[in-house]
Write a structure and sequence with these properties.
Layout (H helix, E strand, L loop, with lengths): L2 H5 L3 H23 L13 H21 L2 H25 L1 E3 L2 E7 L2 E4 H22 L4 H21 L3 H18 L3 H19 L1 H19 L2 H24 L2 H8 L13 H12 L11 H4 L11 H34 L3 H25 L17 H19 L10
Antiparallel strand pairs: 1-2, 2-3
């Protein structure tokens, strides 16, 4: 690759990527090779070594991905998407079940989590479809159709795999992509109203009713469109009513898992245990933390899945507020750099890929950190670049490598059309 291309590389993103992985490795080592190693599953002690190996694989993969021309991604996008959809389907029937999810295909001794790589494929496919749409006759209806035909099938297949967390990541892309496509803000707000109303119903039912009323009033003053106002009211109040019916249809343990979010103390010995232990670990870290490999909650193994989905509790306990805040700052720098680049590359393929990448990272960060502090339900979703997991680390690195490739090679995008 010509040196001029490397001069265009965003070294700030590369530095943040390295820092996040380094912090993750430190947290994973503490959770699996400190004093807690005597009481945890022996297989978990290998997590640090495996993650370190995945890191070296990712470094090689990043160089390879950034060496490919832009035209390769533009021409291969839909083929990659179709291939990954087939893998997701195959994983449901012939894959291995891990933690209740049928999303793993075993290749030798390595497990490939198909849902993670499907995110990369979907981001590329969205770029392809939207660039084609904007090169021809384009309107918000065609955008919505294209987005729906790409995201919804993938999300449904992943929900069928019982991988709820990743499925939600796909659904979260819909309002983000539509907003970037030009959908008015009040329509985007209407799309996410049911999700917010449902969340508030779990936490505190009166808040859901108040929120639904506020939506109706806000839509009235913003649009004076009675059809839109009716839809807003139906979305909010309907979601609240649906949860009342849902509570009667679900099994007792399923209802307990939902209600544990709003009142984990009531379910301290069952579904609320993980949330309470997680909050205790983070809270005990104070401002400076207890020191690496010195966290009592971590080293006693009190928090389940502490090297994977709940790795943020290790950081909170052993590195305190400063360490936790540093992680948030690094993520903020990463997202801001990606967003700034989105506006600088004047081609829809790159723009929609960047928006999808930001949406994927942002959803992971909000849900993962939210569930560790007790503000989101425990659904099993990793923290990008920090949680243990080879598939997640490689998929997220691939997203970042492709984004940096597009930035380095912005001049390779066609000036007009596709």
């Amino acid at each position: 690759m010509r040196r001029s291309l490397w001069e265009n590389l965003d070294y700030a993103i590369l530095f943040v990527w390295f820092c996040l992985i380094f912090i993750g490795l430190a947290a994973i080592y503490s959770a699996t090779n400190g004093p807690s190693a005597e009481i945890i599953d022996p297989q978990m002690r290998q997590n640090f070594g495996k993650q370190l190996g995945f890191f070296f694989i990712c470094m090689v993969m990043m160089v390879v991905v950034m060496s490919l021309p832009v035209r390769f991604f533009m021409s291969a996008a839909m083929g990659i998407y179709a291939f990954m959809i087939l893998l997701v389907i195959a994983a449901r029937f012939i894959g291995k079940e891990i933690n209740g999810a049928h999303s793993w295909i075993m290749i030798g001794g390595f497990g490939l989590q198909t849902s993670e790589f499907a995110k990369v494929a979907t981001a590329l496919a969205l770029g392809w479809v939207m660039s084609r749409a904007k090169s021809n006759t384009w309107d918000i209806k065609s955008a919505a159709t294209g987005i729906g035909l790409l995201i919804l099938p993938a999300a449904i297949l992943i929900f069928v795999q019982n991988d709820t967390g990743t499925g939600l990541v796909f659904l979260s892309l819909v309002p983000m992509i539509l907003f970037w496509s030009g959908m008015p803000l009040h329509w985007v707000s209407l799309m996410i109203t049911p999700a917010i109303a449902g969340y508030l119903t779990i936490i505190y039912e009166p808040a859901a009713l108040v929120f639904s009323g506020v939506v109706v009033v806000a839509l009235f003053f913003a649009t004076r469109d009675w059809k839109l106002i009716a839809l807003g009211g139906a979305a909010g109040f309907g979601t609240w009513g649906s949860f009342q019916v849902l509570y009667k249809l679900l099994l007792p343990h399923q209802v307990a898992r939902i209600k544990a979010l709003g009142n984990p103390e009531e379910y301290a010995l069952t579904t609320g245990y993980q949330t309470l232990q997680s909050k205790a670990a983070i809270g005990s870290g104070g401002f400076m933390g207890k020191g690496w490999m010195q966290g009592l909650q971590t080293q006693m193994g009190n928090v389940p899945e502490q090297s994977t989905d709940f790795v943020y509790t290790v950081i909170g306990e052993e590195f305190g507020f400063l360490g936790s805040f540093l992680v948030l700052v690094l993520f903020a720098i990463l997202l801001v750099r990606l967003i700034r680049t989105t506006s600088r590359i004047n081609h829809p393929f790159a723009q929609y890929f960047f928006v999808s990448t930001v949406g994927i990272f942002l959803t992971h960060i909000l849900i993962n950190i939210g569930m560790t502090v007790g503000s989101m339900p425990v659904i099993g979703i990793p923290l990008p670049f920090i949680s243990y997991g080879g598939s997640a680390l490689m998929a997220n690195t691939a997203l970042l490598a492709i984004a940096m490739n597009f930035q380095m090679r912005a001049h390779e995008f066609p000036a007009h059309g596709y």
